[in-house]
Amino acid sequence: MLVIRDKLCTGCRLCEQICSMEHHREVNPHLARIKIESKWPAEEKIIVCRQCKTQNCVKACPQKALSFDGYVKLDEKACDGCGQCLEACPFGYNLRNKNTGKPVFCDTCSGNYSCVSWCPAKAIRKGGA
Amino acid sequence: MKWFGYTGKLLYINLTTCNYQVKELELEQAVKYLGGKGLAASILYEKLKPGTDPLGPDNILVFATGPLTGTPAPTAGRMVVATKSPLTGLWLDSNCGGFLGREIKQAGYDALIVEGKAAEPVYILIDDDKVEICSAANLVGKDTFDTHEILRESHGEVRVACIGQSGERMDRLAAIISEARAFGRGGAGAVMGSKNLKAIAVRGTNSVKIADYDKFVNMVKEAFNEVAINPDTGGGRNHYGTNVIYSFINEAGIHPVENFTKGKFGKLDVINEEILRTKYYKKDKACSSCPIACSKYSVVEEGKYQGKFVEGPEYENLWSFGAQCGNSDIGAIIHAEYLCDAYGLDSVSVGNAIGFAMECYKRGVLTEEEIGYPLQFGDTEAMMRTLEAIGKGEGIGKLLAQGVKYAAEQIGKGSEKWAMHVKGMELPAYDPRGAYGMGLAYATSDRGGCHLRSWPVAQEVLSANRMDPFSVEFKAEFVKSEQDLISAVDSVGLCLFASFAMTLKQMVGMLSALTGIKELDSGEELLKIGERIYNLTRLFNMREGMNASADNLPERLLTETHKEGPAAGSTVPLEEMIEEYYRIRHWDENGKPMQSKLKDLGL
Ligand code: SF4
Ligand code: SF4
Ligand code: SF4
Q1: Distance CA B166, CA B182 (A)
Q2: Are the C-beta atoms of A71 and A48 separated by less than 8 Å?
Q3: Which of A115, B10, B72, B314 could form a disulfide with A15 if both were Cys (CB 3.0 to 4.6 A apart)?
Q4: Cβ(B81)–Cβ(B61) below 8 Å
Q5: pLDDT-derived band of residue A1, with 50, 70 and 90 as boundaries?
Q6: Is residue A129 pLDDT above 70, yes or no?
Q7: How do residues B155-179 score in pLDDT, each as one tens digit?
Q8: Of the candidates B34, B530, B516, B566, which has an alpha carbon nearest to the alpha carbon of residue B248?
Q9: Which residues, at least 6 apart from B58, have a Cβ–Cβ distance to it below 8 Å?
Q10: A101 contacts in chain B (CB < 8 Å)
């Protein structure tokens, strides 16, 4: 689980680059599972799946493409990109793969939590549970 | 050819014909000039005819990224704008962080080259490979903040660079602003204005590809570590921003006061980096992939400017709207920097110019009738009033907005003597009478009076193992090698500040792993490329008719002395240093690169 502290975030967006590299071996924030929404001058919002208890997304999927096993897993074949999971998220999470249009979810980088170790401001941390 | 790090594409846009064309980047160009400043210099040297009117349709504006721009290398968010400067009539490159460079790279271009002049005000919209020239009728007369907002309302998540009212009027101190960051110095905003180009808006969704993934990630990790453990980049600069040096510079007696008539501001109890950190800074902000986060969001909580805010204030502005004008109200400084961003003005030059006008007033060369109000050093209101006049292009502001060299020519009466500029560009916040190397750096900077080609003060007064500030020894060598190194840094897409911490080996390690270009895997080669670039901008300037007499300092710094402080009694022994500098550079006594040097550099 990721614990985020928007107030510490400097808006450097390194996490977006690192997340895309971790999964695609190239730099492209549009393929990342984390996103910074900045409102100038001083508001940064870290958008990432919280791996929350409600798991409303899993319940909302009409194709049963989602499951939860420490993080939200997407069955790419079953998913038709309808986006009902994202609509159901209580945190307003909304990221999709720019090529496929299907939602993307933080997979903890197989337990490595790359963005956590790279974030220079320690705005993203690994939670206890 | 398959490119890594680079996109391999250059986007040429002609505003006269409304056409655009994508050309390939040549491998040879990348190997010889890297990108950023170097690439822009190679393009401009080839395409721009000598004698071109900087504000005419034939001037060219290059927006160039470096190979590292848009990657997670620490501070790799930077890019340059290069053109022929309307302020100096010479070479200009102006560097900016933020996120525009990353977006241009992801849109698929290493550089945009803008030529010609639009018939009506326009903006350029780039959405990956879609390029459009759109009417800017709805943006005319808007400040840069409104321009950003309107463009985002129409086009969603785009990154913007634009001019404000000053650029539209083609005032020579006009900057290009990108999200409260500036391509500040040298009047690039006026060139945009002369092309009827109000803004560019860019959206890029493509990937930056990496040649040797594992090596690149390791090198980047190492570089991050280096930046984090460095006491400047990982400590003071992160905590205080660029103001980390404020007290040190004052103590050394090289913080210019009231247009360089004193060297230490006597208001250290009300204006210093600690007060800024504790009372004004509200949040640390960073450019793309930058761990230093030297940018500080500041809010004024009391006094006349209560509620005003800025992303800043930077050290240079703490000076230009502080000691330079005799003002110690931090609130006013914060608002002044905000206004410069809004109008699209170079905040260093503007403060310098107001200080110049204050001295003119003090000496009776500009009268209250001519200005419209008394303009005394230390009069905060009069300073703000003059800044507004510059932003609006009204009254005395109209004249000052063209820079101190031009203003002094118009005013006459000997005022050139206290116009503090080199080659037409206003000097920033260091008095070289207490740091001789800085004098040489100013005099030989390729774009005029600027501290960002070489910054000897770091060694002369800020560093523990320092050079003697009052000696000429090693200064020429130091300035030359730093000019070369920084030319390379400005060309790869890194921030100058990161280069304080990173080793050459780390830089070229990242560069070669990213691009897969073996020639770039040598620190020596990187410095040689930097030297090539610095010689090329020199050739550019010589071609425009510049000669050795321009490698000079304002008379005040050579003949007048301070009465008090560490620099009392001292003037800059410039001639000696210049001679040595030419010798080391292999430039002849006229300041011209010798054939042997050019041959050696492949120019
Ligand atoms: S890496 Fe950290 S500081 Fe930078 S944008 Fe991401 S969360 Fe914010
Ligand atoms: S997407 Fe939203 S609802 Fe689903 S687990 Fe993540 S935070 Fe919870
Ligand atoms: S933990 Fe990994 S997958 Fe999850 S947001 Fe961070 S980098 Fe992306």
Answers
A1: 14
A2: no
A3: A115
A4: yes
A5: confident
A6: no
A7: 999 999 999 999 999 999 999 999 9
A8: B566
A9: B48, B49, B52
A10: none
Predicted complex ipTM: 0.95
CA A15–ligand 2 middle distance (angstroms): 19
SS3 B356: helix
- Chains A, B: CB pairs < 8 Å: 81
Chain A residue numbers touching B208 (CB-CB < 8 A): 26-28
Q: Are B434 and B469 in contact (CB under 8 A)?
A: yes
B504 near B484, Cβ under 8 Å? no
Q: Indicate the helix (H) or strand (E) that contains B183.
A: strand B181-183
Q: Report whether residue A107 contacts ligand 3, using a CB cutoff of 6 Å.
A: yes
C-alpha distance across the termini of chain B, in Å: 25
CA–CA separation, B531 vs B422, rounded Å? 22
> What amino acid is encoded at B295 in this protein?
S
What does the pLDDT average to over B131-149?
98
State the pLDDT confidence band at B497, using cuts at 50, 70 and 90.
confident
Report yes or no: B189 and B175 within 8 Å, Cβ to Cβ. yes
Strand boundaries in chain A, DSSP class E: 2-4, 34-39, 43-48, 66-68, 72-74, 124-126
Burial B421-433 (b: 16+ CB within 10 A, else e): bbbbbbbbbbbbb
- Using CA atoms of B570, B576, B581, B582 in order, give the dihedral in degrees to the nearest 10: 140
Q: How far apart are CA A81 and CA B185, in angstroms?
A: 48
